[in-house]
Amino acid sequence: MLSKSRIKHINSLKIKKFRELHRQFIAEGSKLVTELMKNFYQISGIYATREWILENEPLITSGNFIVTEISASDLNRITALTTSSPVLAVVDIPGDSYAFSGFSEGLTLLLDDIKDPGNLGTIIRIADWFGIGQVICSETTVDLYNPKTVQATMGSIARIKVIYCDLVKTLSGIAPGKKIYGTFLDGENIYSQELDQTGVIIIGNESQGISHEVAQFVTDKLLIPGFHAPNNLTGSAESLNASIAAAIICSEFRRR
Length: 256
Hints:
Blueprint: H1 4-12, H2 16-22, E1 24-28, H3 30-38, E2 43-48, H4 50-55, H5 57-63, E3 67-69, H6 72-78, E4 87-92, E5 108-111, H7 117-129, E6 134-138, H8 147-153, E7 161-165, H9 167-172, E8 180-189, E9 200-203, H10 212-215, E10 220-223, H11 242-255
């Protein structure tokens, strides 16, 4: 059974200021927690049902993790999900989190003011799928350790380096000749353009797109063209969700 103070501490980590104060975040779900366990994250404590503990005993033993058996009702008292999972972990935020040390040699995703935690988590998962190891976020992008963001990564948070920094300052120092791509309504059709495999891909805010301050650094404007059925007289959707756009762009880069 969890103490009231432990429940209060875990629930406080749903709020950004307390995550920053305690340098911890919560992760829920068997897949997500086991991914963090396998990828050497420092886990302060794992709270799980007896069934989950028995199922994952070899992994628990090999990593010498501290696991507390609790009931489903106790999990309901600490979960950030609509329906609790059989396991929740309290995880230490890595000491080098948010530190920018330069662009990677391959592709980099740069996120300009992404506000939705689900979008951020999904984009991180997309980066993982397409082998893009670095995601750079503006300082106004939603917190990486928001429970909804962590959940949406489905474990990819353990493999992708996510950095927060001043985008204008960072792009000002980029090496000459490096391609910087962004999507715009007046851009060139992405399916007919040459795409470099060592550039930066900018994904803009869900409603405003790429900001003027960041757009000035874009060297190649791209457009994801819309299509609609011949019998559709009302046209097509006005825009794409940020994470869907990111998936289409990354797929086209890798297809080349």
